[in-house]
Amino acid sequence: xxxxxxxxxxxxxxxxxxxxxxxxxxxxxxxxxxxxxxxxxxxxxxxxxxxxxxxxxxxxxxxxxxxxxxxxxxxxxxxxxxxxxxxxxxxxxxxxxxxxxxxxxxxxxxxxxxxxxxxxxxxxxxxxxxxxxxxxxxxxxxxxxxxxxxxxxxxxxxxxxxxxxxxxxxxxxxxxxxxxxxxxxxxxxxxxxxxxxxxxxxxxxxxxxxxxxxxxxxxxxxxxxxxxxxxxxxxxxxxxxxxxxxxxxxxxxxxxxxxxxxxxxxxxxxxxxxxx
Amino acid sequence: xxxxxxxxxxxxxxxxxxxxxxxxxxxxxxxxxxxxxxxxxxxxxxxxxxxxxxxxxxxxxxxxxxxxxxxxxxxxxxxxxxxxxxxxxxxxxxxxxxxxxxxxxxxxxxxxxxxxxxxxxxxxxxxxxxxxxxxxxxxxxxxxxxxxxxxxxxxxxxxxxxxxxxxxxxxxxxxxxxxxxxxxxxxxxxxxxxxxxxxxxxxxxxxxxxxxxxxxxxxxxxxxxxxxxxxxxxxxxxxxxxxxxxxxxxxxxxxxxxxxxxxxxxxxxxxxxxxxxxxxx
Lengths: 276, 281
Description:
The structure holds 2 protein chains of 2 kinds.
Chain A: H1 19-67, H2 78-109, H3 112-117, H4 123-153, H5 157-184, H6 188-205, H7 220-224, H8 227-240, H9 248-274
Helix pairs in contact in A: 1-2, 1-4, 2-4, 2-5, 2-6, 2-8, 4-5, 4-9, 5-8, 5-9, 8-9
Chain B: H1 3-20, H2 34-45, H3 48-73, E1 75-77, E2 83-85, H4 86-116, H5 119-124, H6 130-158, H7 170-189, H8 199-210, H9 223-229, H10 233-245, H11 252-280
Antiparallel strand pairs in B: 1-2
Helix pairs in contact in B: 1-2, 2-6, 3-4, 3-6, 4-6, 4-7, 4-10, 6-7, 6-11, 7-10, 7-11, 10-11
């Protein structure tokens, strides 16, 4: 008697879940991972920006507000001006951080992606699922920071609420590109350099802490190229009713384009790297 | 590896040895520890981009805070009543903050060498003892802090934020800051149980950086906040660097320098004791 089962006697393979379901599954996997390790992330993504806000309001804000240059800030208190900048900038940093080392670890070190790809999941699912998780993850510190802006910097509650989706969009504008870069490069040093030579200058020089016309003339056109500058303009517009440098639709479109372009690049890079 | 490759390694070793001799460890009676400095020099000269990125970071802060925010603030009054531009005011503080950051970030390297690479076990199997280990690693931290401080000064000059030639005097304060935080970091790293403990590094660093009168004079703070600020070790580095850079030398300068020296020595002493306990028994 033969022990082999004839092919046609095997139960039919269940239908592959659709892309949306697969994306949701990957996002759920990341969210469940937070249960074990949310404390450290909470400290650095909520505590540290709040400290920046405190230092800006308490110390530096006193100096700036007394300096009589508030016309350059549209008559705002420095804490409100810089606080909205820090909200957008922090969202960028959190998104970049979450798209760099964890993704690299999953590809190179813990090889979680290899395990996930042994299931019906495809490389694009891993990228889109991670991005979906990130969008949800970014909303939490943005909400906490929004409350702090209301309490510490006198921002209107409606404005702070409206700034939350802008902060999420800001992070997403960077997430895909960072993921694509960290997936493509070979050496870990190159990831560290991205933060020191890419993210940090963008953080400091995109109108976060001061209007970009304070920069030396040759740097101003460079600052305009920074997606964070567009994000900061948009954040101040919705949170403080600030007039934007470009039409607000242009800032918004640019951020959306960065986000979509980055996502496409990340999918391509992941497909290239994990195809074996 | 080809014979040419081996010759290249020899050349690099010789160059690292020459550079390492610039660090006068003989002065503290720890000449043997020179080999540890040499190892660090050899490693870092192979990654010049990483080394220079560390130097660029504080200059970027200077550009943003000194030039950008400076334009909003205008002048700042020193304790003597003299006015300096905000950029000139912030520069010495940013220089010593960079020395602190560099020294604290060494914790990742030290932890890796202690727990993963097991380098220190290997070192202690040679004639070098725990004290040499601490002297060698600290000497490298101080050397790097000094290098960064000199490069920062060049950036400061390029941005036109040097008030007087006395600004040179903030460089030795930065070196001393590297020593103080380097010593404490070495000791603290021996207590780290896993990488998860490193979440605390940011919790320590950011408040020190933001609340040590780095970005504003102590006088703008309410009394309780000013008192709290003086408990920060970085505050003492900032106050010493500023006092020397602006030629406003007061008796308190000795206190500031003494605090830094004391913290460094205490950290180094504790670190060598901990290394001995962890690795020799």
